[in-house]
Amino acid sequence: MLALLSIGTTFSIAGAATKAPITAAERSALIKEGERIFLKGCSSCHGINLEGSAIAPALLGVGAASVDFQVATGRMPVADMSVQIARKEPVYNEKQVEALAAYVSSLALGPEVPGEEHLNYERDGSTAEGGELFRTNCAMCHNFAGQGGALTQGKYAPTVMGVQPRHIYEAMVTGPQSMPVFSDKTITPEEKLSIIKWIKAAEAEPQLGGASLGRVGPVTEGLLVWTLGLGLLVGVAVWLAMKAR
Amino acid sequence: MSNEIEAIKDPGLPAHVHRRADTDPKAAAKAERQVAILFLLSALGTLTLIGAYFFIPQDSFIFFPVLGDTNAHQLFLGLGMAASLFFIGMGAIHWAKTLMPDEEVIIQRHEFRSEDEDRADLIATAKAGAAAAGLGRRSLIKRSLGLSLGLVGLSPLILLRDLGPLPGDELTKTSWKAGTRLVTDPGDRPIRADDLEVGAVAQTLPQIGEGVHRKLSDIGKDAVLLIRLRPEEFNLDAERLSWTHEGIIAFSKICSHMGCAVALYEQQTKHLLCPCHQSTFDVTRAAKVIFGPSARPLPQLAITVDSEGYLIAKQPFSEPVGPSFWERSS
Hints:
The complex is a heterodimer.
Chain A: H1 2-19, H2 24-41, H3 43-46, H4 63-72, H5 94-107, H6 127-137, H7 139-142, E1 149-150, E2 156-157, H8 165-174, H9 189-204, H10 218-241
Helix pairs in contact in A: 2-5, 4-5, 4-8, 6-9, 8-9
Chain B: H1 20-23, H2 25-55, E1 61-64, E2 68-71, H3 72-98, H4 116-133, H5 139-159, E3 182-184, E4 201-206, H6 216-222, E5 224-228, H7 238-242, E6 248-252, E7 264-266, E8 271-273, E9 280-282, E10 288-291, E11 300-301, E12 303-305, E13 311-313
Antiparallel strand pairs in B: 1-2, 3-4, 4-5, 5-6, 6-11, 7-8, 8-9, 9-10, 12-13
Helix pairs in contact in B: 2-3
């Protein structure tokens, strides 16, 4: 209980700290720090002037949102150059990510990290509208229950379960890797919030039937019935036909 | 003669083996106890069901190995009912296999034809009944009965009409006309060309009047996917290039193979993938099929902007959207 309380207060203090507007001096210090991290950790691939290289894209104009998404979900820096860059434990902490984002967006503007007013899914948004938007715009790749799915040549759309609201929002705005961009004009910030609200509702949904079997529908359910269910029936049939002693 | 093979003799039926319960009273008593235990387990199952119904709250969840967090009310209702039915069956089978008579009995087949006397009786009864009903005398009843029975026979034939009518031009036309605005799906907001940045997609439908109900069968034909690329990325002929607007290209979302919604757009490869059978279309080459079973590209919708800057269709689709059908010309 005490631990919970302390976690809660730490978070609210941290939240208050990020909300407070920072001074110009603090901002330039943040950009300086970001430049230092960038030159050390990112410039070998993305170039010292963010110009990119044969193996990495240019970062001019990608915006703070893109940096925050890629680095805070652990996708950047990459562990291996395979078909798709996967989510993993982040290498940099929140403060370092903020500094990196400030540095990259200071050189050329791009989409900003969404503020709290775009992310408060507990207060705003509509689950029903979010579900409709998700099914039309997201479900074909990320699966109707948000479990993710396959693309071509070994690429895949990752699951959206357990992703922070901020990162869901940033993915829609910046279109990382194979994902296209969903502009604020075609899916408004309010609609994006509704999508996040629906995803969080899907995440919290209890499994009335117990095992979810991956929530991917008929494939796993069919497999279970055909192997376990039929196997059980065959077993019973064999027992029935056995001669009693 | 050493290499002569002896004919195989008919071995006949094997000797009947008696069960242990048939000969040993101890074994019989044991089998009886086993059957009784199975029936008692079934009764216990029913009691579990009743107990679960009344005493486990409907919103209580418990952790169950393999299943994970599970609704306890539902779980015990199910387990109780499963046990009560399963053990009744198992008890009955065990009873039949161990204790019920186990002798083989031979019953000879008898002739199928009835006795002559019974047959004559039946005919006489039928004739007497018909005479008593007076069908021969009351022709009005006979004819009206014939009419009603005949019409009843006709009604299934009438229902065959529901196999039609033929779709007419429904398969070849969509709601898109020259000048129809593209609106977001869902939301029904018109879209300006600069609403889409490079790399963006939008799911769209044709604009319809305020308050008009959009039929599902129309959405199934009208759905269009907008994609914005850099104009220099296109590899199109002059006509198809004139159907795009500042790098925005519009395709029917209905797969030309089996009609699934094709909307898995990979921004990096510019490929559109159909989730059903993995047909892959190259957006830069007018949705040319580069993989999978689809026989032809997705139909492209010619788009431009109107005087207010909103995206509109320049003309209807130049070919039918969706999968092949018999009368399709191409």
